Amino acid sequence: MMLEKLEQLKVEALQKITQAANVDELNLVRQSVLGKKGSLTGILKELGKLSPEEKKTVGQAANVVKTALSDAIANREEEIIAQGSVMEHELDLTLPGIAPVLGGLHPITQMCYDLNDAFRSLGFHVYEEVEITSEKFAFDHMNFPPSHPARESMDTFWLEGTEDKEAEQRLCLRPHLTGGSVRHLREHGAPARFVYPGRVYRNENTDARHERAFFQYEALIVDRDFSFASGKLLVKTILEKVFGQEVDVRMRAGFFPFVEPGFEIDMKCLVCGGSGCRVCKNVGWIEVMPGGVPHPNVLRSAGLDPTEWTGFYINIGLDRLVMMRYGVDDVRLFHSADLRFLTQFK
Predict the structure, then answer these.
(1) Cα–Cα distance between 283 and 269 in angstroms, integer?
(2) What does residue 82 show for φ and ψ, rounded to 5 degrees?
C-alpha cells in the first residue's frame, strides 16, 4: 500500500515538474512535495507504523523517489533558465535603478563631532560622564548653596525613592555637565585640558529656545598659569573653526556658583544676521555659552589647591550652535524625529 502511494506520488510530481513554466512554479512544486509539510515527508512520517521488514523496503523506495524528484527539479530548473523563463518579463538594463536610502548624522551629532575635532586639534581630549548623577556632584561640589532654587523639583528631575536623601544618596538626571569636571579631576588630576559633551535634563517649559532634554558641550582647562585673555582667544578660535568664518562675540559679566569671576558669551545671531528675530529675542545677539575661572571651592572639591591651580571653563549650548549654523529658529525641531526636517542635513 505504501509502495503504491510512493509510485503515485512520483508520477504526479514528475508531471507537475514538467508543467512548471518558471522558477516560481517549480519552487512551489518542490515545497509541496519535498518540503517539511510536503506529501513525501508525510509518507515518511508513517514509517513508524510499519514492521521492521516493511520499514526497510518502503524507506529505500522513498529515498529512490526523493532522489528522482530532486534530480528532475534540478534538470527542469536548468531548462527554464536556458529558455530565459526565469522572469515573467524581459529585463530592461536601461531602466534606472532604485537608489538605496542612506542615513546621515543628526545635525547635533555632527556639530558635536566638529567640536571634538576642533578641541582635539588644540590638545584637548574627550571625556564622558554618566547621565545619572547625585546631589553631591551636581550641586554640592559645584558650590551651589543649600537653598539654591536649582535643587528643587522645578528644575531638576530627582529619581523616585531618593528625594528625601542627601549628597551621594540623592540621585537625579544630570541637570548640567559641570559636575563632570570634579569627577574628571579626581580621576586624572591636574594639569588638565578636556571636553565633555552630553545630554542634560531640566524640568522646564519648552519654547523656541528651550527643551526639557538638550545637549551641552563643556570644556575645561586647569593649569598653574592660564590667563583670561587666553580663554577669550580659545572661544573665538573654536567658533571660527565650527562656522568657517570669523564670528562676532561679546562677553558680559555673569554669576554662576561654580566660577569666579564668571561671564556670559554672546554671538551675533546668524539666523537674522543681527537684525533681530524670535530666537535672539529681537536683540541681534544670542547667549551661547557661560563660563569663567573655576571657583576655589570647586577646585578644593576636586582635591586641588586653589592657590596653586587656576583655569578656564566654558559651557557651550550645543543645540543653539546648531541653530546658528543652519538658521533654524526653533530648537524643538531637532528633537522631533521628523524625517522631513532631519533629511535636509544629510
Answers:
(1) 9
(2) -65, -30
CA distance 102 to 222: 42
Query: Given the DSSP bridges, would you call strands 259-268 and 249-253 parallel, antiparallel or unpaired?
Result: antiparallel
Q: Which of 296, 287, 254 is nearest to 269 (CA)?
A: 287
Do residues 87 and 140 make contact, with C-beta atoms less than 8 angstroms apart?
A: no
- Over the stretch 144-175, which tens digit does the pLDDT of each residue have? 888 888 777 668 888 988 878 888 889 989 98
Across-strand partners of 300? none
The number of residues making up the chain comes to: 346
Question: Which runs of consecutive H residues, i.e. helices, occur in the chain?
Answer: 2-19, 23-34, 39-44, 52-82, 107-120, 135, 179-188, 228-243, 296-301, 318-326, 339-342
- 230: containing domain: 107-345
CA distances from 38 to 18, 32, 60, 229 (A): 18, 5, 18, 82
Closest Cα to residue 317, out of 274, 266, 261, 263? 266
Pair 133, 10 in one domain: no
- The alpha carbons of the chain give a radius of gyration, in whole angstroms, of 35
Claim to verify: residue 72 and residue 116 sit in the same structural domain: no
- Our measurement of the distance from residue 338's CA atom to the centroid of its chain's CA atoms, rounded to an integer in Å, reads 15
Model pLDDT for residues 205-214, shown as the tens digit of each residue: 777 666 778 8
The answer for 290, left when phi > 0, alpha when psi is -120 to 50, beta otherwise, is beta
